[in-house]
Amino acid sequence: MATKAKKITEDIIITKYMEYVLEHEKTPKSIYKFCKANGIKEEDFYLFFGSLERLQKGIWEKFFTNTMNLMQKNKEYEGFSNKDKMLTFFYTFFEMMTLNRSYVLFVLGQEKNSLKNLERLKGLRKHVKGFAKDLIEDGNAEKNFKITKHNPQLFSEGAWLQFLFILKFWMNDDSARFEKTDMAIEKSVNTIFDLFDNTPLENIVDFGKFLYKETFA
User: What percent of the chain has pLDDT over 70?
Assistant: First the structure.
């Protein structure tokens, strides 16, 4: 029996899609087959997503919005420095990734073509860059001299590359409670802010040594 239309939500469709992928170890061939397998009316599916590809991208965007919602529930968050806000974002996001690790590893491991994976992350990229850009623009608003202000576009692009690095690191991390990923987050966030604040080079060198050890040891 089909699920009643009034009970169908975006979250229900996303959850059922992720479960379908993990249980069948493949993505559904069509919206029709996905809906039929889950007792969902096609017209209800189209209330939220226009295609399976849009649903796949929407899952990553949902990870982002859920992360932001969790962070903003912390009453102290607004008083954090930009660096601490970035740290909080990465810690929270990858905690959410861990809750959905089986799905993430499957879908990213399924595509050997990295360009296809980047296409899947296109919506998330826009959100991450927007978040980073807002942080820098807020910081710039407090500075009186143009020479001390940071380039929001450059910083946001750096934040996205940083995200991709941490994502790859997390996917390969086999440490208990993914402690090495937490270390990578801390070191990478400190480094990217150090680069913008022109702080000591040894911090960058230390980060480079950490990456070398974890990649080639």
Answer: 78
